[in-house]
Amino acid sequence: MKPNHYEKSRLCPSVTQGCAEKCYFGSRCRFLHDIDEYMAVKPADLGQNCVLFETFGKCIYGVTCRFAQAHLGDGYQNIINMDLAKQWEGKSLVRNNLSKDLQNQLRKKKFSFEKADEYLRRLAKPHGNGGKGNKASGNPTEGQEVPNCTAPEEDPGDAPEHPVLPEEGEDPKPAALESSCPMDALEGSPIKTVGPVTDEDIIKLRPCEKKKLEIQGKLYLAPLTTCGNLPFRRICKRFGADVTCGEMAVCTNLLQGQSSEWALLKRHHTEDIFGVQLEGAFPDTMTKCAELLNKTIEVDFVDINVGCPIDLIYKKGGGCALMTRSNKFEQIVRGMNLVLDVPLTVKIRTGVQEKINVAHKIIPKIREWGASMVTLHGRSREQRYTKVADWDYIAECAKIASPMPLFGNGDILSYEDANRAVQMGVSGIMIARGALIKPWIFTEIKEQRHWDISSSERFDILKDFTNYGLEHWGSDTQGVEKTRKFLLEWLSFLCRYIPVGLLEHLPQKINERPPYYMGRDYVETLMASQNVDDWIKISELLLGPVPTSFTFLPKHKANSYR
């Protein structure tokens, strides 16, 4: 297999990190090891200032940085501003990184899932069906007990069968489950410790006593696939978003230790209330993934994606499909809630089919299964973005969900939209496309005003995004092009914003398609363009010329009008 052009013109990471004598790839390495040879083919620098060097006093990309002239000395020596570098020494700006040790454990299947395995063993335990195992269908027998921290509201005879039930004739409360809380059965034998006795030694925290998610009335930035990356969330935090959530992560990919999937879990230190969203179709992978994250990353809550409408996810039984698979849905929620120390939330849609709403039937079950909060997107899977969100139905579901908090989501693009949503009786609002079109919406809602933001202010936001992107993805060629890609994805939404000063009547509605218009200056007109070539032009103003034969096609149709 011949090395491609990119590999032949890229400097080996071992040289960049000052370990040239010990190449990671050995004789198989296809990258360059001679710095002079690399500099001869390296593309021209994109600017004189390196954001990493100016912020942290050191650029870890050295000669490969596309702004290297800012920190290269004689003989391509990487200059370090020691005073500035010391200020950042030992500080962790981005958390939830995947370590090599953990990745190896996952790849070799050596990670221990004690609680999940115990739950799944009980789930598969046969009881009264001829030894074929639990099919999760039908009703439990009278008198059998569902080990949950809160008693079910309905008569057990009318409740769906739960996987934890004992066999007929078996004591419904074995010795290991003497406590009313199933977590106690998973604790195992006590660990011998030394030192003074603390409250934690005597009193165990039960799942029903786990930390509550106190976010009622806060502004929640939705988990946004592709566009809801860490640099974008930093922008939204700056404008007033209270709660942020990582992009949807596929649980099977996380369990395999895929670096690209684990990158979706990263948390910036400014994200004070942060959660991650998981997608999966089966209780084994979802419960194991929840236990994995509970042990290895820092989050304030975990969200289950039961709203994803795309065919790839739906046909595998995940996303919206879980709304039609109530037994699997129940097993997933109960299992994840059991192994997590943080609150579990669920995001759903009104239903799958356009005119058949089912969320009001599912929400009481979600509450009973142990979820701390539910978020309802006011559209069905079939509707996608072709109709306006049904806020009357969201209000109806908010009453049904009580006392469990319910956040509403859909079509919020102004503070008036937000005010109307709050008056519907929801516990809070989640903002998705509205934040992509105008991330300053959080400021508008908190200050109750329309912000006639200038084109120069908007361009400064894009500058900040590119700086955050270079900081997050890197300032080498690879990092620059990744930053450009995500900038262009975001620009496909930003172009839909209509400046307040040009509107005939306020506020702008999210699905209104404006006629072609001229802005108040060149940059404002350029930003309003629906043409991909103009988006590329904006990216070139910030990140220099695009590579030869560069093309871009927006990944999502969510940026389109109805």
What is the spatial order of strands in the main beta sheet?
A: 2-10-9-8-7-6-5-3
Q: Could you give a short account of the major beta sheet?
A: 8 strands, parallel
Helix content: 25-40%
* Strand percentage: 5-15%
Oligomer: single chain
In total, the number of strands is 10
Q: First CA to last CA: what distance?
A: 47 Å
Low-confidence segments, ≥5 residues, pLDDT <50? 1-5, 128-192
State the helix count. Answer: 23
**Structural class per helix/strand content?**
alpha/beta
Mean pLDDT: 85
The general outline is: globular
Evaluate the radius of gyration.
26 Å
Q: What does the model show?
A:
Its cofactor is FMN. Residues 6-36 form the C3H1-type domain. Residues 122-193 are annotated as: Disordered. It is a single chain. By secondary structure, the protein is α/β, with parallel strands linked by helices. Helices cover 35% and strands 8% of the residues. It contains 23 helices and ten strands. The strands form two sheets. It has an eight-stranded parallel sheet with strand order 2-10-9-8-7-6-5-3. It has a two-stranded antiparallel ribbon with strand order 1-4. Helix 7 (114-124) runs antiparallel to helix 14 (326-339), helix 14 (326-339) packs parallel to helix 15 and helix 21 packs across helix 23 (532-543). The model is unreliable at 1-5 and 128-192 (pLDDT under 50).
